[in-house]
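Preliminary data (for renewal application), coenzyme A complex.
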Amino acid sequence: MKTPAITAVGHYAPDKILTNAYFESYLDTSDEWIVTRTGIRERHVVENQATSDLAVEAARRTLAMRGIGADQVDLIIVATVTPDMFFPSTAALVQNRIGASRAWGFDLSGACSGFLYALATGAQFIIAGTYSKVLVIGADTMSSITDYRDRNNCILFGDGGAAVLLEPGDEPGYGYLDWVNYMDGCGEETLHMKAGGSRHPATHETVDKGWHYIYQDGKSVFKVAVIGMAEAAVEIMRRNNLSSDDVAWLVPHQANLRIIQATADRMGIGMDKVMINIDRYGNTTAATIPSCLAEYYADGRLKRGDNIVLAAFGAGYTWGAAYVRWSI
Ligand code: COA
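Predicted structure:
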């Protein structure tokens, strides 16, 4: 059995930035409220771009870091809840655009846990020895399903794409070493996008009712997210005999700084060991965790040998955690 390792990582954020001041300009909100309740100061949003554009750029940067051509990729998994279209898959659009001529692939819908679900899925093809190069992408254009009149939700989300390349690891004890993923569909009520699927196909009525936007009961989601993300992270530590001193970085899904702080507290680690970029990007759903990895690796803070715990919670509900010993 091979141990999968992350051998390259890349991140892309669109150019346009919406600051908290922008929301102050037309909504009954304030920079102070947004920063203290969420930790977010600004978020990037697309202009004339879709999720495949974000995914393609992230994929290109990842392959460039590894120094290989797209024609060497075996499999492309795109975690997203905002595909360009229902079909063909965003993975198919990425495959064509980057020229991954011998890859197949698919989209995976795990919401904010999408990247962790996709990582676990892609890793199985490496462990089984089926493939040697799996591109796992998390990309979301949350602005396409956000109601910018809804102050409860519009301040939370941003757009972005990030990717990792999974390959068989070159050294025992390094790489993607363990994971736990969970799901409880009772979360449908508190966090969903109601229309546009087969339950409520698009009609004038569904559009008038705003059913093509994110609906979230923030307070209810907050309560379960705090518990789920922290428990999964602590479970991963326990299963792998990791003390708080052993953990170099917590890499949390970036939905709310207070949820992240609660998770770090439960793990017994200080915020100096937590990867944070929510202040600059908001919640980019499937892109948050790989975007942190890309930024912290690029500036040298994430180093070979670091024990890192990835953790996420999202719609479904879905949640999970993973243990990676960084190998590049
Ligand atoms: N500016 C100012 N006030 C706002 C506001 C905004 N942008 N958005 C909401 N409020 C108001 C609410 O209307 C409420 O007012 P009321 O008491 O008069 O009704 C008040 O602020 C407090 O709202 P509350 O829901 O208690 O705030 P909160 O501390 O729970 O924070 C969230 C709200 C959305 C930031 C928080 O619940 C959250 O982050 N939830 C989870 C989000 C999440 O993780 N989602 C994705 C899962 S991956």
